[in-house]
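User: I'm putting together a small comparison set for a docking exercise, and I want a reference complex before I start. The sequence is below, and the ligand is flavin mononucleotide. Could you produce the 3D structure with the ligand included, as structure tokens?
Assistant: Of course. I'll restate your input first, then give the structure tokens for the complex.
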Amino acid sequence: MTALGTPDQPMWTSDVIRLRHSDRSPFDPQRPLAEAHLRAILEAARWAPTAHNMQNFEIIVVDDSSVLAAIGRVHGGTSEEFIRENYAQLSFSEEELIRKGTGLLATMFPLSWQDPNAASELATDFDHGFLDATMRSCPVVMVVVFDTRKRAPASERDFLGAMSLGCVMQNIWLTATTLGIGMQIMSVFSSAHVEEELRKILSIPSHLSIAFACRLGYPLEEPDRYLRVRRDIDRFAYRNAYAPRDEQ
Ligand SMILES: Cc1cc2nc3c(=O)[nH]c(=O)nc-3n(C[C@H](O)[C@H](O)[C@H](O)COP(=O)(O)O)c2cc1C
């Protein structure tokens, strides 16, 4: 993946939005993020819009190989709940995925995840449940945390705060794309048991919780091209009033 621009000469936003994708391929673990690139990514996070300008995030940049290795020894695992709900998003052919316009191809996942009733022990056969392979294939992990004691003013369950953290994620992701840096969100980091382990490794105090984590790096190879779909605009946009549609 080549860089699309520089922080001074970015590409058109619409191009970057279309080119951004989840990069689940290995990154070069020997190639740290260039300091200017890391800074540009943090600068993008810094300027993310947040409800009431709360700036409700802190970012832990992990690039020390011994800390990455310690994270790799954490058991990620996969819950039965995850397998069941992930299954609901799967399509079993490209035609099905194109017709639905949402979700993912089942073949992207290990075989054991393609059975909604797979026992969780079976489902963790992927990478033996440890984060090791993932951590060995990237030079940097960013862990974005937020203060659970605060919320956006009068926002039920801090929904607006959570949306703000999504804006931080997108700013990071678009900037990484511009710079030719691959990125993958790692939701497993926010699961209760992994978060507990990461608290110890990264000295995260109890009032902070992991919003999301991502692995970043320069891809070693062109990522596997798999089918990515989106709904057509007329399947989600309305003029002046919502109108129910027949959806398959
Ligand atoms: C909040 C959030 C959590 C996600 N968690 C994961 C994850 O744990 N692992 C992963 O590989 N991708 C994860 N993704 C990436 C989505 O699967 C991906 O964005 C979606 O399938 C669309 O594909 P694209 O990013 O290539 O456009 C996550 C994305 C978001 C926004």
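The two ends are 36 Å apart (CA to CA). The chain has two domains: 1-76+130-222, 77-129.
User: Thanks, that's exactly what I needed.
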